[in-house]
Specification:
This protein is of the alpha/beta class and about 250 residues long. A five-stranded mixed sheet has the order 2-5-6-7-8. Strands 1-4-3 form a three-stranded mixed sheet. It folds into two domains: about 90 residues, no CATH class; about 150 residues, no CATH class.
Amino acid sequence: MSEYYNLAKKIYIKKSSQPFEISRSKIDLFLNCPRCFYFDRRFGVMRPPGYPFALNSAVDALLKKEFDIHRAHGTQHPLMEKYRIDAVPFPHLDLEKWRTNFTGMRFLHPPTNMIVFGAIDDIWQNKDGSFSIVDYKATSKAGEINLDADWQIGYKRQMEIYQWLFRQNGYKISSTGYFVYCNGKKDAKAFDGKLEFDVYLLPYVGNDVWVEGALRDIKKCLDSDIVPPASSECDFCQYRKYIKETLDKKN
């Protein structure tokens, strides 16, 4: 059986005294569709996986190496100088753990007994001693690079959950985080075995006030024996609905 439909995967057990781990991405799944989230965390039935973005992962890895050079020397990256950001990449013994998927920065949320975790791309230390969360993004599009599209709410939530996590762990986190946004250029004369990017630094002022309420709503959802209703905005819910209707007609 595919690992994405393996009911032996860790699922939520009501009234268990053991803390339940929930990732940043699962929080976003709940906010997008409580029904899909419920199938995932209560029954162990995940949505079908998307294709891996290998080029994005390569950009991510190379950016980390690039910023780590400046981290080791305590110097500013040229992008910081270009955008006049008075900060340097923050060196910390736990940085690699914070960057590792399924480990990341973690916090046990006592009201829900859930361990919230998420893996960051980078963290910078500002001149005033505060820290800014940084996330790397890659795309290839014409027009202005910004954070204005409706679907980019997921990026903003991602930033805010990271800010919340670090604050819960005692770090003085600036509300201003940054997206290092790489846009693949399509106007070169030839490919010549390389892809070039324009790199932008987009500031974002986050507000993590919603996180506490979302965690309590998630706990309430998980404790309920009633499956949340299908959402008309969820493609997966609509797919399941039309499949059922089609089968009902056949029978």
